[in-house]
Specification:
By secondary structure, the protein is mostly helical. It has 18 helices and six strands.
Length: 630
Amino acid sequence: MAAVSERVHPRQYARPGEQPGLWGWLTTVDHKRIGIMYMLAACVFLFFGGAEAFLMRLQLAVPNNTLISASTFNELFTMHGLTMIFFVVMPLSSGFMNYVLPLQIGARDVAFPRLNTLGLWLTIGGGLILYTSWFMGGAPDAGWFNYAPLNSPPYTGTGIDFYVVGLMVAGLGSLMTGINFLTTIVNMRAPGMHPMRLPMFVWTTVLTSLLLIFAMPALTADLILLFFDRFFGTGFFNPAVGGNALLWQQLFWIFGHPEVYILIMPAFGIISEVIPVFSRKPLFGYSSMVFAVMAIGFMSFMVWSHHMFTVGYGPLVNSVFAITSMLISVPTGVKIFNWLATMWGGRIRFTTAMMFATAFIATFTIGGFSGVMLASAPADLQYNDSYFVVAHIHYVLVGGALMALFAAGYYWYPKITGRLLSESLGKWNFWLLFIGFNVTFFPMHFLGLLGMPRRVFTYAPNLGLNTWNYVATLGVFVLAAGFVMYLVNLLWAWKNGAPAGNDPWDARTLEWSTTSPPPAYDFASIPLVRGRDPFWVEKTTGNGQMIPVDTAGADEGDAHHAGKVHVPAPSALPLCLTLALVVAGYGSLLRIWIIAVIGILAMFFCLFRWMFDKDPGEMLDVVPTGGEHA
């Protein structure tokens, strides 16, 4: 179906004041460039996290292997977990949110562009602090959840200090990102886009942001207490001096279980965008889907203690958390039913994006089934700290979140670059990842049921674990080939991909009503939303293009009728503020307090400059012109 779009001069893809080359990217406040940088950073960390997992599986391929020492193995599995959760899945989700969300709600940017940039640099800064631990005394080695008393000095080295400082810096960036997204959605929606017309990806961003805002302070408090324990000798988690080791677990899982939904909630939104487009049907049960994700977000704060069934809180506490953990499967089942009902009777096009979306449903459902098993307190006494739990979390986060993020990559890559990824390479990419993932992680269910503990670096040859460990290691090679195939597809399509046009999928939401890639200002005229799938409404009942809002009487900054659009100016302040905070962090880690003080003073200087910087940005001339594009 033809759609009318804006014709944009090439120079308008860059914002006024942005410098060419690297400095332009370092100082940009454009939500689209920030989204791309989030994705690139996540891909770099994915390489490191994947390499760590690859080495662990090589070590476990055969019994009594000596490829890796026990201490190095502890560092590998700790860094792998931290990397995949905080520096791969979260930044990838933030990348798509940054790029797509303002376009989906008809906005020209996020509410706080500089704060948005600061969130990016803090995330990268936290990751760099964490990874330099490998060269400065050793990486963290107490697991990604870092239980007390293992996180205290008698049991671990300086790597835990890097854990504390790195996660505090990265967590601060995540918190700012959540506040920014929520403010943007509440205040910057296009006219007519009331809450029950929001795309599901926007709704899941709302819930993700709320979870970040309410859950992250618990982790921050935990890290601050541990900082004082390790740097100043307090005893918050040391029972010998009146502390409580279980306090760490309580605070950590009050954050940690909502964190699971922080990771998976954007995936729910992605799947809810992809399936209707390639089923040629509107999303079945939109209202029930909205209330289901609300219920999941609310209930995610009521189930944290199912991670603590074995600590001895007793049958009453365990029973309460077992019931709430099982109840959360009800709204989850509603979503799966709605996705299947959307596909039922549709004219399905099995593009690569759709194949990843359907694989998500299958693999995430398997992870959900094992999650219900783990929610039973008596059964969890047997499953706890076994490879059954490892299989469960990977089916939720790799089979769930990463499958959805691959679907998003194939779906939105044409919008970001203006070119299509190869469907032929995409099919190879899908089957390698799908087969490799299941061959790697499904045998871990059997390993757990056979009694193999997690976090062990080797095992005896007479325990019946040899075959499944060998099979899982073979699967890693196939899985790695799938990731390489995706990288090949990305690089090939960047120069050689077929031109996508503005709406290659005949899609339903607003991001497809502008050019591919979008201009610097996103929309020359803010669109008027007249239905739940606004672009589809105009293509089927209108004239094929979005109706601009009547701006008579608008102030100069919104004078779309005058051909003027305000865009914020680039700024080096977010990068400088992050560098100051990183310097303060390294000063603390090295116990060179003068460097820490210098970093803090520089941070306050940057904040002072930020507060009094009155640069209003620039007014950009735009001339929307009709032009039909396939």
